[in-house]
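FORM 7B: Structural annotation worksheet

SECTION A. Query
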Amino acid sequence: MAFSIDKAILQGASRGESAALTKLVAALEPRIERQLLRYPLSEEDRRDLAQSTLVQIIRRVGSFRGDATFSTWLFRVTANEALMMMRSQRRHRARLVDGIALEDLANVPSANEDAAGEGADATAAQSERDAIVRNALEELPADYRDVVSLHYHQDLGLQEIASRLATTESAVRSRLHRARSRLRTILERAAVHEEEAAA
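SECTION B. Predicted structure
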């Protein structure tokens, strides 16, 4: 719903007058919080966003020219802040998933190998990443897991895998493609859980 702010408050806030700023924040905070409920964010993220949006409004209030209504301007600033945070979180999740890259599967000990001895010198972070990938592999159906293991851990080509599994090369290619896709989904989900646990 459209609303307006008294021009004297806007002018005072743009000059940094504390009374005007206090009135502006009191008027805007509940509206910003209501708008942020539309976005799929955690409660903590919403609180942070409400604060960062208020900071942006206070910093930019002098640039409000009245071409649109103040409520439209506020809506845009709030939406921009929320979308920037969501993009940043998506990039962060993508980095987590890429950090546990499918291309690195060859370096991850398979579940039936003794990872303890091999990982003694590994960093805690690397060991944790390896565990996440091993758990993801365990979630795959057996036929997908077999193909991934033969391709990445035993370094077999598609034709060799097809011979060993008594199937066609195209079936192996298809299973490997589906296994990678499924693994990416599992790893993305793990990244989201990790992010939520850290919050």
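SECTION C. Observations
DSSP finds nine helices and no strands in the chain. The two ends are 33 Å apart (CA to CA).

SECTION D. Sign-off
Analyst initials: ____
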